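Incident review: delayed structure delivery

Summary: a single-chain prediction request sat in the queue longer than the usual turnaround. Root cause was a stuck worker, restarted by the on-call engineer. No data loss occurred. The affected request and its eventual output are reproduced below so the record is complete for anyone auditing the incident later.

Affected input:
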Amino acid sequence: MAAKPRVIILSATGSNRDRDVAAAIELAGGMPEIVHVNALIAGERTLSTYQMLILPGGFSNGDDLGAGKLWAVTLRHRLGEALDAFVAAGKPVLGICNGFQALVKSSLLPGDGEPGKPVATLTRNERAHFECRWVHLEPDPASPCVFTKGLEEPIFCPVAHGEGQFVARDDATLKAIEARGGVALRYVDASGTRAGYPHNPNGSVGNIAGITNAKGNVLGLMPHPENHVRPEQHPEFHRGVAGRSGLTLFRNGIRYAGEV
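Output delivered after worker restart:
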């Protein structure tokens, strides 16, 4: 890459993982800039001048009306054309936790329906309480997702959410998403086997942890890969355990952004 790709980390009132994401982007070789969504709406920043977009985790707008719902409304009705053009240009977009919720509820993911008409949602965890634990994520080698391309081992990172259960509109929609490789990441246990709670912390059907659009340049996931990008962040680092870092997702995204 001739220059570091410019990465816009789009925050909203209540977002709280923007600095964590910025640190991950710097480690991955990108140039991050945290920008409040209102700055884009006011024209103080232009989305098209960036090579990559990330929606970080948190509790946007206090999660009034549901997790990520108001952020999704803002994205669709105030920035819809710019976002659609960004995605159509093939530029990478990553939504994490609350950012994933916003992408789904704005219909940018899974991207199989009409704009503004979501075909899936992220609803309350199956056990109806907040989950905060470390999980293993198995990438699908058949997925077109640019963020997971070439990953040969699971990712180990934490989740922190109360509404992370992925639900499709109907069985036909879910089958269509799976058939095109739209499930980029699934919850597994330490051995790589799909398993129930607590390995699947929210009860998502098919152990779905992250999905991508048909082109593969948009990824949304509930877990937080930005919170395991350094060896010392591993919960058993003091015992000499390392690996399965989330940094690989960011490096793939930055590499791809530099080529688009």
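Verification: The first strand starts at residue 6 and ends at 11.
Action items: add queue-age alerting; document worker restart procedure.
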